[in-house]
Amino acid sequence: MTSTQERAERSWLWWLGWLPAGISRLRRDPPPEHLSMLALTAAAVGITLGGVLASRNYFAPSLLALVLLFGGLLISRRGMLKIAFVVAGCLAAYITDIVTTSTSRPFGLVAVVGITGLVAYEFARSRDETGMAGMRADSMLVELRRRLEDAGRIPPLPPRWQAELVIKPAGGGPFAGDFVVSHVEGDRLEIVLADVSGKGVEAGTRALLLSGALGGLVGTKDFLGAANTYLVRQDWTEGFATAAHLVLDLETGGYEVSSAGHPPVVHFDAGKGLWDKLKAEGPALGLLPDVDYEPCSGQLRPGDALLLYTDGLVEVPGRDLDVGIDKLLGEAERLVTRGFAGGGEVLVNRVSDGSADDRGLILLWRSPHL
């Protein structure tokens, strides 16, 4: 290989390495629109002149589709219309040159550039609705998801206590209506497992809003009552939310569980070797004003465990909810002999792998060895 060929290859490799990083930077922090308009117009005119006056091998007319695509990423809807007119004029000049110099009829070229223009215009319209330049709307959603995940982490617990949290969005998507709010203060642990009606991005954004509100209410005397009042005031047309609220004394193991339309929390009693459903009941949040949620109390002794979960884990259309709960408890029985560590993921995968609904589960246990 000659030195000229080596330099050409290094040049191409440099450009291939730089291009993804450059596009990513443009998405996050696009230049001012007037500069983008000027650059895209110059690119369209340059491609056309190069193809007509020089060679279509180097200045292919299909490159005009890239001008439209970058326009959809960088400029507003109004600016996108102007660029579309420029590209249409350049394409007309290109087609005229092709028709007069050959027998080709570039219908495919017109279709490709036209479809790309429609897709790019939709990009620009979508960004105009968010009021954000470039692709910052995508970055905002990613940041919202990260904050929701961070808010749901269970804080570190004393050595004799262990907890596992599993949240799986419907269809493996990035957003879920199931979320967790938790807080430790001294020997008092509070955990809230909530489920917002719906799924996908809409449920995820409402889950973020509600998680912030519930995080501020954690520690209040009547937590679920206050949460219900908040949700009633929101007057959500999309639906409601369910929640299970656990307050645990990390010193004695005493606990209280309250439920707002949630599937029953279950307690594993190591002394009996049985899983028992706790009788904490109440209507879902946001449906009725002035609701009193009566807690159910108990104690976690060494070797005991609690299981909190959302209905997406046990609910199947056309099947009684108790059937799904019994299946969950049947799988939970297997954890007793193997140990609870890693059991949260095992339960979710075995009970509802590939479910069309969001799934959330918390497995909390007290080590038998102090």
Q: What do these coordinates show?
A:
This protein starts with a helix and ends with a strand. With 370 residues, the protein is of the alpha+beta class. The strands form two sheets. A five-stranded antiparallel beta sheet has the order 1-10-9-6-7. Mean pLDDT is 80; it is low at 7-16. Helix content is 51%, strand content 18%. It folds into two domains: 31-134, no CATH class; 140-366, Phosphatase 2c, domain 1, CATH 3.60.40. The chain contains eleven helices and ten strands. α7 (200-217) crosses α8 (223-234). It has helices at 3-28, 33-54, 63-74, 77-101, 107-130, 136-151, 200-217, 223-234, 311-314, 321-338, 343-352; strands at 161-168, 178-185, 188-196, 241-249, 254-260, 266-269, 274-277, 296-299, 305-309, 359-366.
Distance between the termini: 71 Å
Unreliable segments of 5+ consecutive residues = 7-16
State the helical fraction.
40-55%
Give the name of the CATH superfamily of the largest domain: PPM-type phosphatase domain
> Structural class of the helices, strands and pairings?
alpha+beta
H/E element order: HHHHHHEEEHHEEEEEEHHHE
Q: Provide the spatial order of strands within the biggest beta sheet.
A: 1-10-9-6-7
Give the radius of gyration.
Answer: 29 Å
Strand content: 15-25%
Q: What is the number of E strands?
A: 10
CATH third-tier fold name of the largest domain: Phosphatase 2c, domain 1
CATH class (first level) name of the largest domain: Alpha Beta
How many separate domains? 2
Oligomerization category of the chains in this entry: single chain
Instruction: Characterize the biggest β-sheet.
Output: 5 strands, antiparallel
The average pLDDT value, as a whole number, equals 80
CATH architecture label name of the largest domain: 4-Layer Sandwich
Query: What spatial form do the alpha-carbon principal axes imply?
Result: elongated
